[in-house]
């Protein structure tokens, strides 16, 4: 469990397919399904309100401190 507040990303906030990338001043979200399935946008328009690929779980990279990637 993370102590960080959720991203304003809708379903992606709780999807294990989400990949959170951080720079020193920002964070952005990639959809992990997009690499194998062109039906999914690599950078989905947020917030995602409906998604056939939603998979409950913790997004990858959420617990990393800003600037760690
Ligand atoms: S599968 Fe859907 S809900 Fe999950 S990260 Fe990709 S766009 Fe977001």
Largest sheet: 2 strands, antiparallel
Distance between the termini: 20 Å
Structure annotation, total helices: 0
Query: Count the strands?
Result: 2
- Overall SS class: mainly beta
How many separate structural domains?
A: 1
The neighbouring-strand order within the major sheet is: 1-2
The backbone outline, from C-alpha atoms, is globular
The topology string of helices and strands comes to EE
Q: Average the pLDDT over all residues and give the rounded result.
A: 85
Using only C-alpha atoms, the radius of gyration works out to: 11 Å
Poorly predicted runs are none
Sum this structure up briefly:
With 69 residues, the chain is mostly beta strands. It is built from no helices and two strands.
Description:
- With about 70 residues, the protein is mainly beta.
- It has one domain (about 1-65).
- The chain contains no helices and 2 strands.
- A two-stranded antiparallel sheet has the order 1-2.
- Iron/sulfur cluster binds near residues 51 and 53.
Annotation keywords:
binds iron/sulfur cluster, two-stranded antiparallel sheet, 69 residues, 14% strand, mainly beta
Describe the secondary structure blueprint for this structure.
Blueprint: E1 18-22, E2 27-31
Antiparallel strand pairs: 1-2
Bound molecules: iron/sulfur cluster (SF4).
Residues 11-12, 15, 17-18, 31, 33, 40, 44, 48, 51, 53-54 line the site of iron/sulfur cluster.
